[in-house]
Amino acid sequence: MLTHTKVLGGNPTYKVLYREIKFPRLEFKSGNLEVILPKGHRIEPEEVVERHKNWIRRRQLFIRDALKGSSSKSLHIERTVEDFKDLVRRIIERHTHRLRVSPRGIYFRPMRTKWASCSNKNNITFNTKLRLLPLSTIDYVVYHELIHLVNRKHDTRFWNTMRKRYRNTDTWEKRLLSYWFLIHRNRNRKGHLIAIH
Ligand SMILES: [Zn+2]
Fold this sequence. Notes:
CATH topology of the largest domain: Zincin-like
Bound molecules: zinc ion
CATH superfamily of the largest domain: Metalloproteases ("zincins"), catalytic domain
Number of helices: 7
Oligomer: single chain
Shape: globular
């Protein structure tokens, strides 16, 4: 079931979803706030939003900065999908040597909501839209997924390992979001980003 509600004096607009989870969860998908509630529980979405309003505000500012940053960036349209696949395989080879982990399979496809993902069976899938990003940013995403082979969750240990190679992960995450906005700009113009204004 989907419902849209306006809260915080006209601040975020959010979508309410119900899933088989134990605790309520907040997520920003491409700049839109989603309140995910456990099925069958009587928790009011307003309550969850109110409880986490500081986090929501911080996220909104992060998204606003990323949007601003997207105007000064350009896409690497000259890199073909084949070039991109070769590049990712080379990066993986280099890192697996050092990290002593390797994915079982490497897959590529266009993805709608993420840059990449790592399955429980240690298969890594990369969004082919990554081909439009600079080499350094592709490396950041590849490294992130390889770390998931040993650390599934985005917990402190995960980010500490990330910071061994990328000291300011916040800046890198913001950069990634800027590119996301740049690639999906046309769709966002059609009201996709109402949550952050
Ligand atoms: Zn991750």
